[in-house]
Every structure is written in structure tokens, then in C-alpha cells.
Amino acid sequence: MSEEKRCVPLVSCLHYSLALFEFAGVGADAFPIPADEVPGKLEAAREALWVDYDANPNANGLTAAGAPFYATLQNLSGGPRPIYPLSFGGFQGLLQSLAGDNGTIKGILNEPVIDTTGITYRFQTLPGEPLSSAEQGFNNTIVQAVPAADANALRDDGLRLIPKVNGDLYADIPVVTVHTLGDLFVPIKMQQIYRQRMEENGWGDNLVQRAVRAPSHCDFSIAEFNSTLDAMLTWEQDGVKPAGDDLLDAELMADPAFGCTFTQDGFPQEGVRAFMPACPEV
After folding, report:
1. Nearest 5 degrees, angle CA 260-CA 263-CA 268?
2. Residue 9: pLDDT above 50?
3. C-beta neighbour count of 124 within 10 angstroms
4. Handedness of CA 171, 189, 41, 57 (dihedral sign)
5. Which domain of life is it from (predicted)?
6. Is residue 277 part of a domain?
């Protein structure tokens, strides 16, 4: 389970920036990173990992030193899959803007809650495989964010400032999720972790998950919204369990056609996803 441990909420996960700086040769000496050091580290990372970041932050604009960073982010966010190559560049500005977070989730908490001690950084192997010597050295060197004890503890009213998603239902209810493959703000890795937690708690049969071939966060068409809701309502009211995708099958997810089953047009405007790789004709 060590590789599945992730900080919550996702928008302030710091493994991205810690890895970014480490690959650029300006790795953090400690966490939190002093705020006055972040701009310089970001500038150094852009110079080291991209040919010309401002002109082309996309995957095809990376230097040789940037290639392992690209692979690392892919593995941290859900593994090899369609659409990730297209979304990589579009999320860099957003992810880098979070590099100065001190682990308190933008001040929601008084103490750092971010925990990267269970993260395994991979750029030459896939989860389940032995780490390469280069990966082992990287994981031994990179600074880790260690959370404060009880940083997100229960309040007097029984709630937490940041809710925990444990994958433990209180009743036998149907759950249908849909997630975009290219999202790097809340990556599809979170759906994989949710599946694992639901199964560990005995609720695996209550969960159906679907993947959509889109590059952005919550980038769903109206047709995708409607079909997902219809599937859940039909399951709840008529007992007909809908079809879904297996997000824990790494080989299936890496297939260029993955996500085609539940990707639908239906935007108000034409050609919104015209640049997405086409699904094979059936």
C-alpha cells in the first residue's frame, strides 16, 4: 500500500514540486521549502527540464533531463494512459503555482498535513516492479514532507476541516464515478486509490468507475454527465448494475483505445475535443 498513500486534498500534494526540483538539480534541503527559495527553484527547473518553457511547456518541449520527470508525473498520476501526453503541458502552470504550499493546504489547517513518506517515485519502472538503481537513489535522496500528528483531527462536532474519503459506505448503496484521463489537478490515481479502499472495506461490488478521454479537470460533456447519472439511477431504482472501466488493470489503461467506451460528444459547441486522439471504429 505504500505507493498508494497520497496527501489529501489533492490540490496541495507536494510530490510534484519536490520531484520537479530534484530532477532539476535544485532539490529541497528540507520541507517546507522557504517561500523565498521557491521562485528561484521554479526558474531553475524550467531552464533545466524544458528547452523553452515559456514557448512550449508540453511534453515535446522537454530536454533529456526532463524525460524522467515526465515519466514520474505519469506514474504518480495514474500510470501510462491515453490523453496524459496531451494534458502534461497544460497543467504545469497550475501545479507549479502550488509549489510554495507549506503543507497546511493554503492555511486551512494550522499544521502541515501533507505526507509524502509513502510515495515511491518511478521513472524507469512501473508499480509492482523492482526499482532501478537510479530510482532507488532518487527515492533515498529526495526530501519528504512529514505531517504533524493529528493535523486534521476530528473537531468537537465530530467533523474534520478536511474530509477523509475512506471508501467505507454506511449502507448498501450504488456508487458510480466518472473521471477524465488527462486531469493532473485531481488525477485518476485518486480513483484507483478509492477502488482499493472500497474493496478493502468490502464495498467493491458497490462501485462502478468510468474513464473519459478528456484533458482537463471536470472536463465532461453534457452527454457524459447525463449517462453517468442515468446509470446510477437505473442501478439504484431497478437493480441493473451498469458497465464500467477497470482502473486497476495497468495494461488495459495503457491501451491507446482506453476510455473510448464512455467518452461521448454532446458539448453545446462543435469540435471541442477535435484534437483528442480518435477512438478506433467498431
Report:
1. 150
2. no
3. 14
4. negative
5. Bacteria
6. no
- The range of the structural domain enclosing residue 208 comes to 175-254
- Shared domain check, 119 and 8: yes
C-alpha cell at 41: 527553484
The DSSP output letter for 59 is: G
Examine the domain organization and report whether 55 and 134 are in the same domain: yes
Same domain assignment for residues 93 and 190: no
Stretch 131-153: mean pLDDT: 95
When divided into structural domains, the chain yields a total of 2
Report the distance separating Cα 254 and Cα 104, nearest Å: 34
Based on the fold, state whether residues 8 and 137 are members of the same structural domain: yes
Set of cell numbers at residue 92: 504545469
Q: What residues does 209 pair with on adjacent strands?
A: 177
Residue 33 lies inside a defined structural domain of this protein = yes
- State the cell numbers at 274: 477535435
- d(CA 84, CA 128) in angstroms, rounded, equals 21
Task: Give the residue carrying C-alpha cell 497550475.
Answer: 94
Quote the pLDDT of residue 82. 95
pLDDT digit string (tens) for 19-65?
Answer: 999 999 999 999 999 999 999 999 999 999 999 999 999 999 999 99
Report if residue 163 sits inside a domain. no
Q: What is the pLDDT of residue 226?
A: 94
User: 151-184 burial, b for 16+ CB within 10 Å, e for fewer?
Assistant: bbeeeeeeeeeeeeeebeeeeeebbbbbbbbbbb
Local confidence band at 8 (pLDDT 50, 70, 90 cut-offs) = very low
- One domain, residues 17 and 121: yes
Q: With respect to residue 269, please indicate whether it lies within any of the assigned structural domains.
A: no
